[in-house]
Specification:
The complex is a heterotrimer of chains A (about 450), B (about 425) and C (about 450). With about 450 residues, chain A is α/β, with parallel strands linked by helices. Chain A is about 35% helix and about 20% strand. In chain A, helix 5 packs parallel to helix 7. The N and C termini of chain A lie far apart (about 95 Å). Chain C has about 450 residues and is α/β, with parallel strands linked by helices. Chain C folds into two domains: about 100 residues, Roll (Urease, subunit C, domain 1), CATH 2.30.40; about 325 residues, TIM Barrel (Alpha-Beta Barrel), CATH 3.20.20.140. In chain C, strands 1, 2, 3, 4, 5, 14, 15 and 16 form an eight-stranded mixed sheet that branches. Chain C has an eight-stranded mixed sheet with strand order 6-7-8-9-10-11-12-13. The longest helix of chain C is centred in the middle third of the chain and has 27 residues. Chains B and C meet through strand 11 and helix 4 of B and loops of C.
């Protein structure tokens, strides 16, 4: 009996030890200036446990065995969220057709894109990977977290609500204008549409088709319930997502510039009984802030880009501030493609709205944290520093809205994915690795080189 | 007699073209002279467009002039964007609105100042962020430009212009302050906009093309030199505007502004400039590598492009563009900044301050967009710092000129207050007021 | 009524038969080292061939009278080597095309990995596809078995290098058609075919912006849709057969017909990211699939093992281009790939992932052996290399009961080598295909060296 008891105790002890090994160590981020975004800014600490923010406050209770990181003098923000980007993707556009809702960015994630790491080093922890703007109706999006080192599946933020890309304005009609277009189509076979009116037509036709498709399935289900021998309609991967839009299950993120096309899309959506989730870029959004607010759409825009296209000629850097003042849920995005650029500096992009439009520090930070989180339907998980949210946290050495600040550490789901000091140490190691491999190759080349023979 | 009359007429006209400078006394400001330490609670006296006096106590002027109470604000020298297409390029994607990138491989005779549109919407926009002067580029870093021309090697001269004036004549600071050169690079990497991916091309072909272009460039210089020699020898030569334009370069008076971004072409263009015995300024340097030492040793100035960009190569450290200015500073290289475009020209100051957290001392960042730029363009006797005798290009802010959040309150060009109203502020006010 | 000339005709026919006498139908190779692959190596054994099949193999096999005997002393006998992903036999696909290094037209652009060499085919101008319904670039009805001819000159070169079999596929299109296992000898194409349909070759090539699909994700979406369409087509046909009155007659679609015949897919995947992507994607079709390419598979052996997916390896190991920029430093990823790619076969063997070898991208069939030698130098067991060239290939394509090892009852395909198979100095003495002996083609004599002056370019 005693032997059995000893055995049981031993087993329990082993189990406990194992549990402690597999459960991640809690972390306390101590004594920093915390920009919660939603609950003010104050000096305090954060407890991270099991990937979540367990506690935030000016004083916290440090759990047993927690790793304490002293961050005196540093600043903490929620992980920044980029609502519109094309990094980490092998394809950006399925530009051959005007409606490409059958394609999915999830299929073409490139988890080894260095841009992921660079975004991370810039404080961006979550991003909305969108189809490009070549088509009036584009493909399905995927929201990822910058969990550098994971495979494609490991990057996907599974809690995100599914979305789809639309595009209005110059880009989706460029292929309809023949030979000049870098977006394909050619003089012989331009791709419809070539005008903004045509863009509206493409969208309405697509949703009409989707409605008919939806009806055919409802009809089939009704008949089958009645016991009829009917063939189910053929599944159409292009129309399935559009039906999801009609049913409110898929968010529409629509690239647009001009006020008239913004209005057009809001009315088309209303005609078919759905809402536009976000108007992306919407550089003239400030002109129709009232209508956007009434419809209930959000806007995700640039900080200060303008004049590169005629439809960007009325763009103003006050766009985000004005929309915010008019009550529209607004965010800032990078639209990065071919490499990480603006997405590595979302904090200073946000700071521009203090200068252009007089937003407060929290309002500015919200543009790249809680606002895009709301727009993507993930605000219960990320976007602010609150107990119960996922521990996506950025540590800056100075005020995050200052150009003089640097990212020092980044946590995603409570795990540290970036540390500037470690990155600095890793650089000479990588260089040494490269040098070693180059020398190895050179040596092998020499060994392989054929012996030179003199003629007899 | 007639000739004398004509000459004096031209002189009068030329004098009349220079706009009148303004006068005012700016009190109660923190002055950042750049050429010296900052002065709190100081004043700046501007007379007829020139800085007359700077200091804690300033001699009150004899005549009645405007007195501006700075209310504890900060005053800085107006910033200089050392390379933009402001006023030359209105909308990037519309060719008709662009006047850079002419046809022809060697077009040194072109002066962008004459194509400067004084009513371009870009000018007030850029000026409103404290930039008072820009170097005008006739072509881009890769040659070409938005004019739709082919890829030039010598795209034209570089003019310096104030960002205020009724005509380009009034705006002109220097008609020809430099000569554009795109130094040929062997760059087999090409970017495919269809898939946003880079592909390695054919090195032998690129090398061949590179070598051929170098040969053409050398021949062109040789021809220009022959022309110059003939002229000096008073031999009868038919005037050739192209070769005429190169003479100041050959004389060492006008620098070659050579776009060379990577180590190899930097190395090569330095050798070229040495051989041709011309003054050299490097532009668009990104990865100087081992050539940095040579740049420093030969005291070649550098015009840096935007630090706020993406990283070039896969293995580059993530902060490489941010750390570049500090690298140059540590090596003892003098540099200034340019944005090389129109639409982001207003963000010039942040290209400098972005380098500060990565090692660039703040004072150097400020100097880079003011006095260094003036020195590199050879106009530092008149511009680049707040010192008596210099032209009154001044910026008044509520904080650090190089910080993003800062508001620019007033801008003076030649002592005249510039209008800070822009297309953007007008649209903002209009739609803010929409019921 | 028998014609007057009948006996004469008979005589003439008999004479003709004698003159074109068939090679001996019974052959024995004696006292050779025999690599059965299915079992241990037999140091001194005999292989008996009868009527195109292996009649017996062993150390003590009695040789019957009247059998042609070949002295195998000092020779190594292997099962006939198999090129597991080939175009041999389809002469139109012989023209080599430099690997598509770029994004345009390439399947899955990845800077570190060279794209597979896709041989150029005379492309018929395609009408612009508007979507999956136009079946763009689809050739599922095309069968390699219909296209192979013994007149392809590469067949002899392959035999001379020791190959007896190839799994040959048509190459044009996203869905290029069905491959066949063929022996590299025969009087006509039909004779060569061992199995006429062993897999559907997919390429996921894209048409840029001009044509659907213009992107990798478009190609993937297309495959999904056409799979759905094929299943629907089958259901519609069945329903129609049961009730031709109530059900609308389904429209005949040869693309879907060809798809329905598919019982194995070949999907391209070179890099780790591509392999992981295609493992996920391939599983959606609920059809056995094989990945081809696999040069970064050394990083994904566990995933491949878990998924139970075999790999046809492209063994043109990535290397520095001959004429590359001397000042260019490749990325760390590229250097690592170049360094580690040749270890892939050993890594896969250790993990228990079935793999075979392809001639894809190589200049000559001999280069396959050279490439494997490189892998052997970095740890691949020679026995595993031999297996990859023989039994594994047969198993992957479901023809292991007929080919791949030296066992009684299997087709008599043998490769006889003087020296070790992977030794550069070895010589292929002969191969047997369907029991018939073939000698290697004589090598072209080397051009005489010029006497006197040093040829230009030679280092002093």
């Amino acid at each position: 009996m005693i032997a059995l008891r000893i055995l049981l105790i031993a087993a329990a002890a082993c189990g406990l030890a194992l549990a402690q090994q597999t459960a991640p160590q809690p972390i306390v981020l101590q004594n920093a200036t915390i920009h919660t975004v939603t609950k003010g800014t104050f000096s305090g600490s954060i407890v991270i446990r099991n990937g979540m923010i367990a506690e935030v406050g000016d004083k916290v209770l440090a759990p047993m065995g927690a790793k304490i990181i002293d961050l005196s003098g540093k600043h903490i923000t929620p992980g920044l969220i980029d609502c519109h980007t094309h990094i980490a993707l092998v394809s950006t556009n399925e530009g051959s057709v005007s409606v490409s809702s059958m394609v999915a960015m999830r299929d073409v994630i490139d988890p080894e894109d260095p841009a992921i790491f660079r975004d991370l080093a810039g404080g961006t922890t979550t991003a909305n990977l969108l189809h490009g703007s070549a088509n009036a109706i584009g493909g399905l999006n995927v929201v990822i977290k910058m969990r550098w080192g994971s495979d494609a599946d490991g990057l996907v933020m599974k809690e995100a609500k599914p979305g789809i890309k639309f595009a209005l304005g110059e880009n989706p009609k460029r292929a309809g204008q023949g030979a000049q277009s870098p977006f394909g189509g050619n003089a012989q076979t331009p791709r419809y549409p070539g005008t903004r009116m045509g863009v509206e037509d493409v969208i309405r036709e697509a949703f009409l088709e989707a409605r008919q498709y939806q009806a055919s399935w409802k009809d089939y289900e009704t008949r089958r319930a009645r016991g009829e021998n009917v063939l189910a309609p053929r599944r159409n991967m292009k129309l399935d997502p559009l039906v999801e839009v009609l049913e409110g299950k898929r968010l529409v993120h629509a690239h647009c510039y001009r006020a008239d096309e913004i209005l057009m899309l809001l009315r088309v959506a209303e005609e078919f009984g759905f809402k536009i989730a976000t108007l992306q870029h919407a550089l003239e959004g400030y002109k129709v802030a009232k209508e956007i607010k009434a419809h209930g759409a959000g806007v995700s825009t640039f900080s200060d880009w303008w004049s590169y296209k005629i439809e960007a000629y009325d763009a103003i850097p006050y766009n985000a501030a004005l929309l915010t003042k008019k009550g529209v849920l607004t965010s800032l995005n990078s639209d990065d493609a071919g490499g990480a650029d603006v997405s590595t500096r979302l904090n200073t992009e946000a700071a521009k709205t203090i200068k252009y439009g007089g937003l407060s520090a929290d309002e500015a930070l919200a543009l790249v944290t809680i606002n895009p989180a709301r727009q993507l339907g993930i605000d219960q998980y990320v976007g602010s520093i609150e107990a119960g949210k996922q521990a996506d946290i950025v540590v800056y050495d100075k005020d995050p809205l200052s150009i003089y600040s640097k990212v020092e550490k980044v946590f995603i789901d409570g795990r540290q994915y970036f540390d500037r000091d470690e990155d600095l140490l890793a650089r000479p190691r990588r260089e040494a690795d490269k040098k070693g491999l180059l020398e190895k190759e050179k040596a092998a080349e020499k060994a392989d080189a054929p012996q030179k023979r003199r003629p007899s | 007699m007639k000739q004398l009359l004509l000459a004096s007429l031209f002189a009068v006209v030329a004098f009349a073209a220079a706009p009148e400078g303004g006068s005012f006394l700016l009190k109660n400001v923190t002055v950042h002279p750049v050429s010296g330490p900052k002065l709190d609670g100081a004043s700046v006296l501007v007379l007829d467009g020139k800085i007359a006096e700077v200091g804690a106590k300033v001699t009150p002027p004899k005549t009645k002039i405007r007195i501006i109470d700075g209310k504890g604000l900060h005053v800085w020298p107006g910033m200089i964007n050392s390379g933009s297409m402001v006023g030359l390029s209105e909308i990037g994607s519309i060719r008709e609105t662009n006047d850079t990138g002419e046809l022809g491989t060697f077009v040194p005779q072109l002066r962008p100042i004459v194509a400067l549109n004084p009513d371009s919407e870009h000018i007030p926009v850029v000026r409103a962020n404290g930039i008072t002067m820009t170097a005008l580029l006739p072509a881009g870093a890769g040659g070409g430009g938005r004019g739709g021309g082919n890829v030039q090697m010598i795209g034209g001269q570089i003019s310096l212009a104030h960002l205020a004036g009724w005509t380009w004549e009034e705006m002109e600071v220097r008609r020809s302050a430099g000569m554009h050169l795109r130094y040929p690079a062997i760059s087999p990497v090409s970017f495919d906009p269809m898939t946003f991916s880079t592909t390695r091309g054919n090195y032998p072909n690129s090398k061949r093309q590179h070598d051929q272009e170098i040969q053409e460039l050398t021949s062109f210089f040789d021809d220009a030199r022959s022309y110059w020699t003939a002229k000096k020898a008073a031999l009868p030569v038919k005037t050739d505007l192209k070769f005429e334009a190169l003479i100041p370069v050959l004389e060492g008076k006008t620098p070659l502004i050579a776009f060379a971004s990577h180590e190899r072409e930097i190395r090569e263009v330095i050798e070229f400039a040495d051989k041709q015995q011309v003054k050299l300024v490097l532009a668009g340097v990104r990865k100087p590598g081992a050539a940095l030492e040579t740049i420093a040793k030969k005291k070649i100035p550098v015009i840096l492009g935007r630090t706020q960009t993406g990283v070039d190569e896969e293995d580059d450290p993530y902060d490489e563009p941010y750390a570049l200015p500090a690298k140059l500073y540590a090596a003892g290289v003098k540099f200034c900044f340019a944005t090389f475009d129109a639409e982001f020209a207003r963000n010039l100051p942040y290209q400098a301050s972005q380098g500060v957290p990565y090692g660039l001392p703040y004072d150097e960042a400020l100097r880079a967009v003011t006095l260094n730029a003036a020195e590199i363009w050879g106009i530092d006797k008149e511009y680049g710092s707040i010192e008596a005798g210099k032209v009154a290009d001044l910026v008044l802010t509520d904080g650090d000129l190089l910080e993003v959040k800062t508001d620019v309150k007033m801008v003076f060009i030649r002592g005249n207050e510039a209008d800070l109203e822009t297309r953007h502020t007008r649209l903002y006010k209009k739609y803010l007021a929409r019921p | 009524m028998v014609h007057r000339l009948f006996p004469l005709t008979l005589l003439l026919l008999a004479a003709a038969a004698l003159l074109t006498a068939d090679p001996p139908s019974r052959v024995a190779i004696r006292d050779a080292r025999v690599y059965t692959v299915s079992g241990p190596v037999l140091e001194k054994a005999t292989v008996l061939i009868k009527d195109g099949l292996i009649e017996a193999v062993g150390e003590n096999v009695p040789i019957p009278v009247g059998v042609t005997v070949i002295d195998g002393t000092g020779l190594n006998v292997y099962p006939g080597l198999i090129d597991a992903l080939s175009t041999w036999g389809i002469a139109e696909l012989a023209a080599p095309v430099p690997p598509a290094g770029g994004a345009r037209g390439g399947a899955q652009p990845a800077p570190a990995i060279p794209a597979p060499a896709t041989p150029a085919t005379p492309q018929q101008p395609q009408p612009r596809a508007r979507g999956p319904e136009d079946r763009p670039n689809t050739f599922t009805w095309v069968k390699a078995a219909d296209l192979v001819k013994p007149s392809d000159r590469r067949i002899e070169t392959a035999r001379s290098a020791g190959f007896t079999t190839a799994v040959t596929f048509p190459r044009q299109g996203i869905l290029a058609g069905h491959g066949a296992v063929i022996n590299l000898a025969g009087e006509n194409g039909g004779d060569m075919v061992v199995d006429p349909a062993v897999g559907l070759y997919t390429t996921l090539t894209t048409g840029g912006f001009a044509n659907f699909p213009g992107s990798l994700m478009g190609a993937m979406a297309y495959l999904r849709q056409i799979w759905i369409d094929a299943a629907y087509y089958r259901a519609a046909k069945e329903a129609y057969a049961k009730d031709p009155v109530a059900i609308v007659r389904p429209s005949y679609d040869r693309a879907l017909e060809g798809l329905l015949e598919t019982h194995r897919l070949l999907i391209p995947a070179f890099s780790r990211v591509q392999i992981e992507r295609m493992l996920r994607f391939g599983a959606e079709f609920k059809t056995p699939f094989v990945l081809y390419g696999g040069q970064e598979a050394f990083r994904t052996a566990d995933q491949l093992k878990k998924a139970g997916v075999p790999v046809i390896l492209n063994v043109k190991w990535p290397a520095k281009e001959r004429e590359s920029d001397p000042e260019e430093i490749p990325s760390l990823r590229t250097l690592q790939l170049r360094d580690k790619a040749p270890t892939t076969p050993a890594v896969l063997a250790a993990a228990g992932v079935p793999f075979a070898i392809s001639s894809e991208g190589l200049d000559t069939p001999k280069d396959m052996l050279k490439a494997l030698k490189k892998s052997i130098d970095v740890g691949l067991k020679p026995a595993d290399a031999i297996r990859a060239l023989t039994l594994s290939a047969a198993e992957i394509y479901g023809v292991a009961s007929r080919l791949g090892s030296i066992d009684k009852g299997k087709i008599a395909n043998l490769t006889v080598v003087k020296g070790d198979l992977f030794d550069e100095k070895s010589k292929v003495e002969m191969v047997f295909i369907d029991g018939k002996k073939y000698l290697p083609a004589p090598e072209a004599p080397a051009p005489p060296r010029p006497t006197g002056a040093t040829p230009a370019g030679e280092a002093q």
